[in-house]
Amino acid sequence: MRRTCLVEVEIYLMTRTLRYCEHRLEDVRNSVRRIMDVLERDVFSPEGRKQTFSKHDGVHSLTAAISIVAEAQQFLGASEVVTDWPLKLVLDRRPFI
């Protein structure tokens, strides 16, 4: 859970900083893509879901994971981060960490 939450904060800070200064834009894009690959492989896989979301802090971990995907979708675009429906990032209005 801690790893997921830390990654969420890192992605959020990197992508939001680029709104003010596009320094190292491609580095941030590549980082977000790598993090999405790790999430897909290690968190959203059947075994990853059991390990990540079935503990006492599963709801918190789930919110963090979905927030990462929502921020990545907003940053990279819905054509690159494909979901059944567009995700809405709620952290701007209601931070949970």
Q: What key attributes describe this structure?
A:
mainly alpha; 97 residues
Topology of this structure?
Elements (H helix, E strand, L loop, with lengths): L1 H16 L7 H19 L2 H8 L4 H19 L21
H/E series, N to C?
HHHH
Can you tell me the overall shape? globular
Number of helices: 4
* Average of per-residue pLDDT values: 86
Alpha carbon gyration radius: 13 Å
Q: What summary fits the major beta sheet?
A: none
Strand-residue proportion: under 5%
For the terminal residues, how far apart are their CA atoms?
A: 12 Å
Q: What's the total count of β strands?
A: 0
User: Low-confidence parts lasting 5 or more residues at pLDDT below 50?
Assistant: none
- Portion in helices: 55-70%
Structural class: mainly alpha
Number of domains: 1
